[in-house]
Amino acid sequence: MKRTGKESKHRILILGGSGFLGNAIYKELCSYFKTYGTYCISNKQFEKNHQFFQYNFEEDDIYEILDIVKPTIIISALRGDFSKQVLLHEHLAEYVFTQKIKLIFLSSANVFDAYSKYPSYENDKTLSNSIYGHFKIKIENILLRLPKKQVAILRLPMVFGSQSPRIHEIIKNIKEKEPVEVFPNLVMNVTSDDRLTQQIHFIINRNKSGVFHLGSNDLVHHDDFIKEIIETLTLEKAIYKHVYTTNDERYLAVLTKTNKLPKHLQFESTNILEELKIN
Ligand SMILES: NC(=O)c1ccc[n+]([C@@H]2O[C@H](COP(=O)([O-])OP(=O)(O)OC[C@H]3O[C@@H](n4cnc5c(N)ncnc54)[C@H](OP(=O)(O)O)[C@@H]3O)[C@@H](O)[C@H]2O)c1
User: Fold this and answer.
1) Which one of 21, 41, 57, 164 would you pick to mutate in the ligand 1 pocket, going by the greatest count of ligand atoms within 8 A of its CB?
2) For ligand 1, is residue 169 a contact (CB within 6 Å)?
3) Mean local confidence (pLDDT), 108-137
């Protein structure tokens, strides 16, 4: 028998539940689990939804929300000030440890952005030369000190999807006859909000943990992929701005070796393009 939200054993708190990914995760999980979210900027839609709490990690104490929700799983899908996010995750790690619950953290392929010559796998040592990558590594390292069963670190490549800020920006640039930036030397893998939310649902249902690399199985050049998106959406002719950061190819790709999800949750970059056609 399928569990309904009310019978389900989990109480899930999504930090950043109003964001692009946090909200996609909320919509995927809310019919199956008691699911709660946070938003930061005042917003009528979330004020009306009693599952949502207004929360600003720069000002507010997370313990108040934790005391009300008593989550069994926390999903961290935040953006914002790096050092304050690090502090928040130190507090979350302590709470997760003492309450014996689980934390799912959305990390990024950027934790490997100093390795430009190869794609990266789950057990590779992280190394970054960007501020963003450094910050994600710092939080990962705090979480990796917790018992393994209590943490899932999800490293994501660029996320596309019909409602993604990336696609919205491409459409806006074309409408306004502004150039669309492409990085011809960048070799990457990709994902979408739909694929990611299905994978997270599976990780929760099967109580999986550890480090996951959640991108397509194949690699694409950034410029080719963006051009294919524009063709797929049959948008008007775009003006491209080719940005070369190095002379050589640069990889920003997270592939799987040791912590694979089952076949039906794996995908290719063409699947992401096909989904854009449908939506
Ligand atoms: N999108 C991608 O391509 C991608 C790729 C790799 C990794 N990731 C990771 O996935 C996570 C989510 O990304 P996203 O694209 O969904 O971001 P997003 O749409 O910008 O959402 C960010 C969330 O953080 C909240 N937030 C911002 N400042 C806050 C503050 N001071 N206090 C409390 N909440 C605050 C926002 O709330 P309001 O909107 O209400 O202000 C929103 O809910 C991030 O950790 C990101 O690093 C994303």
Assistant:
1) 21
2) no
3) 96
Nearest CA owner, ligand 1 atom 7 = 108
Q: Is 16 in the pocket of ligand 1 (CB under 6 A)?
A: yes
Asked if 136 and 110 count as a contact pair (C-beta separation under 8 A), the reply is: yes
Residue 96's nearest CA partner among 46, 34, 33, 145 is 145
Whole-angstrom Cα distance, residue 178 to residue 209? 43
Residues near 277 by beta carbon (within 8 Å), at least 6 away in sequence:
232, 233
Is the pLDDT reported for residue 263 higher than 50? yes
Residue 14 CB less than 6 A away from ligand 1: no
Q: Which atom of ligand 1 is nearest to the CA of 136?
A: 47
Contact in structure between 63 and 42 (CB atoms under 8 Å): no
Q: Do residues 274 and 211 make contact, with C-beta atoms less than 8 angstroms apart? A: no
E-strand ranges in the chain read: 11-15, 34-39, 52-54, 73-76, 102-108, 151-156, 158-160, 180-182, 186-188, 190-192, 210-213, 220-221, 240-242, 250-252
> Which atom of ligand 1 is nearest to 38's Cα?
43
Residue 5: which pLDDT band, with cuts at 50, 70 and 90?
very low
Direct distance between the N- and C-terminal alpha carbons of the chain, in angstroms, rounded to an integer: 31
- pLDDT one-digit tens code per residue, 135-166: 999 999 999 999 999 999 999 999 999 999 99
CA atoms of 112 and 127, how far apart (whole Å): 5
Closest ligand 1 atom to 80 CA: 28
Tell whether ligand 1 has an atom less than 6 A from the beta carbon of residue 1.
no
pLDDT of residue 1: 46
Tokens of 98: 């003492």
